[in-house]
Write a structure and sequence with these properties.
This protein is mainly alpha-helical. It is built from ten helices and two strands. The chain has a domain of 62 residues. The chain is 68% helix and 3% strand.
């Protein structure tokens, strides 16, 4: 719908210009001659198209620069806008800017607050389109190949699929071996990254945790209470030594108390 609306506005604008130009040609055809009037109209049409294109390019660049990706809803709306701009762009400058904005925003969001592989898909689509649409832009193509290799490294860190190593290696070898990158820092960086691929694409196997050692039983803490000794009393009878029962021991203790109470108490008399 947005594309159709923009096309409708452009068509109406061009139609209004042609009507005005036709009226002007009718009024001035007698003085200028038909041939001269046609030439003037052609020049005016060219000027109009160029002016409209410049204005459209400026509007598109402002729109791209003003996009926001702060919230998920804003990011979704901004990506939709970029897709429309990329699809409708009649100017390479606009398409290039939109693709770069899409790729960079997607790469940033893929690593924001955790890992989001769905944004890597958007980034890969943007940078792959850059390779197809702008093969002659050497610095941009070189940096794009490096970013595509980084995307494969990020995917491997998530799923440990070794197919990502093969893809990253292909991008880096192209960057290292293509003649247009010879002697550039891009070529040197690609060669260094190729040397470290085995370290980057390494599956980490975590060892199983060791079993917990069995602990000896905890010693029993000594208590402060000391058990009272058990005293067994005996009595002498004609039959020999016989244990004293609890009742007998209690009666004996009671008689002893009575005897102690009946004895006179000694007091200290004052000296004469």
């Amino acid at each position: 719908m947005k594309t159709e609306r923009r096309h409708e506005l452009k068509t109406n604008e061009l139609g209004a210009f042609l009507l005005d130009a036709n009226d002007w040609a009718k009024k001035n055809a007698t003085q200028l001659g038909t041939g001269v009037a046609i030439v003037v109209l052609a020049l005016l049409a060219i000027r109009f198209i160029q002016t409209s294109r410049d204005r459209s390019t400026d509007d598109a660049m402002v729109s791209i620069a003003g996009l926001s990706f702060v919230t998920p809803d804003e990011a979704a709306a901004s990506f939709d806008t970029l897709e429309d701009v990329i699809h409708d762009a009649g100017d390479d400058k606009v398409k290039l800017s939109a693709l770069l904005r899409k790729g960079r925003a997607a790469m940033s969001l893929s690593m924001s607050d955790g890992f989001h592989p769905e944004y890597l898909d958007r980034a890969e689509a943007a940078y792959s389109e850059l390779l197809r649409s702008f093969p002659g832009h050497m610095p941009m193509i070189a940096s794009t190949l490096g970013v595509l290799a980084t995307i494969e490294e990020s995917r491997f860190a998530d799923d440990e699929n070794m197919a990502h190593r093969k893809a990253a290696e292909a991008y880096l070898k192209r960057l290292r071996d293509d003649a247009q990158f010879k002697g550039t820092p891009f070529q040197t960086d690609a060669a260094q990254r190729l040397q470290g691929l085995d370290r980057v694409f390494q599956v980490v196997v975590l060892a199983e945790p060791l079993p917990k050692p069995e602990l000896p039983p905890a010693p029993v803490a000594p208590t402060d209470a000391t058990p009272e000794p058990v005293v067994q009393r005996f009595k002498i009878t004609p039959d020999g030594m016989v244990p004293v029962t609890d009742d007998e021991a209690a009666a004996t203790a009671e008689e002893r108390d009575q005897d102690n109470k009946s004895e006179p108490q000694e007091t200290d008399a004052p000296a004469p």
